[in-house]
Design goal:
The chain is an alpha+beta fold and about 60 residues long. It is about 15% helix and about 45% strand. The chain contains 2 helices and 4 strands; from the N terminus they run αβαβββ. The chain has a 4-stranded antiparallel beta sheet. Strand 3 and strand 4 form a beta hairpin. The termini are far apart.
Length: about 60
């Protein structure tokens, strides 16, 4: 568990969305400002359903 957080290069915060939280068990990537990130962990702090913390590792530039 802690290893994933230590490998994170960025954390993306967003309002809670059940569809995004459901992706926690899948291999997922995000593209933010043309930069590709692997999603390492999606956290719903204290299970409050207020926000999500998405821990990311930068992979590289997106050229798609």
């Amino acid at each position: 568990f802690h290893t994933k957080l230590e490998e994170s290069s960025h954390v993306f915060l967003m309002d809670y969305h059940p569809g995004v939280y459901a992706l926690a068990d899948q291999n997922t990537r995000m593209i933010l400002k043309n930069v590709l990130y692997d999603v390492l962990y999606i956290d719903n702090p204290d299970e409050m359903n207020e926000q999500l913390e998405i821990h990311l590792r930068r992979v590289g530039a997106w050229n798609g």
